[in-house]
Each structure stands twice: as structure tokens, then as C-alpha cells.
Design goal:
Helix 2 crosses helix 3, helix 3 runs antiparallel to helix 4 and helix 6 packs antiparallel against helix 9 (162-188). This protein is an all-alpha fold. The protein starts with a helix and ends with a helix. It folds into 2 domains: 2-108, Orthogonal Bundle (Rna Polymerase Sigma Factor, Chain: A); 115-188, Orthogonal Bundle (Arc Repressor Mutant, subunit A). Helices cover 80% and strands 0% of the residues. The mean pLDDT is 86. The protein contains 9 helices and no strands.
């Protein structure tokens, strides 16, 4: 390994292109610290900088046979780190613009043009799913939600315990949540 310490950058790049893992390790050892310092000055997030450097060195190793580093390895590495940092800033700006746009839209409180249609469609879907419930469960659910009866009132009318009514309503809600989950998502997003 000693001769790798003494090798020039050009020699290391040449060995790297031939698949020499020790040459790659020497490049990493030689430049990781200075690249980290360089990146951290521009992006003071230690984990993000580590990710950038890891991606850079993985890219170099994976593309070692075709990579065009040229005659100046440090310039190539610094430029690659700078470009990765700029990509992060660009991505953060896009995220920020999207969030701002979404918040602006959300605060307008204007109904969507097709909102009445969506509500009508949702009601039809809910009614269809309720009709698929087991008969006793459906009856209890409809008495609770459509007739606005309390658990005790339903229990008295059907000669069952209020605990049974509560359990039947909870079970029906669980079933409907599972079945309607995707419909809610598709209708409102």
C-alpha cells in the first residue's frame, strides 16, 4: 500500500480505471477530508455533506471505466461536490415553492368547481358500501346515522344491549374506513 501513497493523482486515476480498489481507497483517503470541509462551508449539515461525498465516491467507483476526470483530479472532485450542493439547493427551492403554492391554494378557501359532483359521488359510494354490510349491522348503523338515535334508543327498539349496539357501530365504521379509504383519496386529491 505504501506505493499508493507516493503515486500521483494521474497514476491513481489510471489505476482506478483499471479497477484497482486500493487506488480508489487512496483517492478517498487523500481527498475526503478536504472535500468535507469544502462542502460543509457551503452546506452546514454534516449528514447531508456525508451523503454528498458518499454519492460522489460511489459514482466514481461505479463509472470508473468511463469517467472523464481529466488531468486535474482535485478540480474534478471540487466541481462534482459543488454541483451536488447546487442540486440540493435547487431541490430545496422547488420544495419551498411547492409548499408556498400549496399553502396559498389551501388558504383561498374557494370550493373546487366539481365539488358538488364529488360530494354526490361520495354519498353514492358510501350508501353502496353501507348496503353491503351484514343486515343487522346495517340496520343499527342506519338507525344511528340516518335516524340520529342514541345507542340506548336503538338497543330499546331492537331488544339488544347498548354495548352490542356500540360494538356493531364500531365494526361497521371499521369496515367502511377500510373500503372507503381509497375512494376518499381518489375523490379529494
Amino acid at each position: 500500500m505504501n506505493h499508493y501513497n507516493l503515486s500521483s493523482d494521474l497514476e491513481l486515476v489510471s489505476m482506478l480505471k483499471d479497477g484497482d480498489l486500493t487506488a480508489f481507497t487512496e483517492i478517498h483517503r487523500r481527498y475526503y477530508g478536504v472535500l468535507y470541509s469544502h462542502a460543509y462551508k457551503r452546506l452546514p449539515d454534516s449528514e447531508e455533506v456525508k451523503d454528498i461525498l458518499q454519492e460522489l465516491f460511489i459514482c466514481i467507483w461505479n463509472n470508473r471505466e468511463t469517467i472523464n476526470i481529466g488531468s486535474n483530479l482535485p478540480a474534478y472532485l471540487y466541481t462534482s461536490v459543488r454541483n451536488r450542493i447546487l442540486n440540493i439547493f435547487k431541490h430545496q427551492k422547488i420544495e419551498s415553492d411547492y409548499i408556498t403554492s400549496f399553502l396559498h391554494f389551501a388558504h383561498q378557501n374557494e370550493p373546487l368547481a366539481d365539488e358538488p359532483f364529488r360530494i354526490k359521488e361520495l354519498v353514492a359510494i358510501v350508501e353502496a358500501e353501507v348496503s353491503l354490510l351484514p343486515p343487522q349491522m346495517r340496520l343499527i348503523f342506519e338507525m344511528s346515522r340516518n335516524s340520529y338515535l342514541s345507542h340506548q334508543e336503538i338497543a330499546d327498539k331492537l331488544n339488544i344491549s347498548s354495548l352490542t349496539v356500540r360494538k356493531q357501530i364500531n365494526n361497521s365504521l371499521k369496515i367502511l374506513r377500510v373500503k372507503l379509504g381509497t375512494h376518499f383519496f381518489m375523490l379529494f386529491f
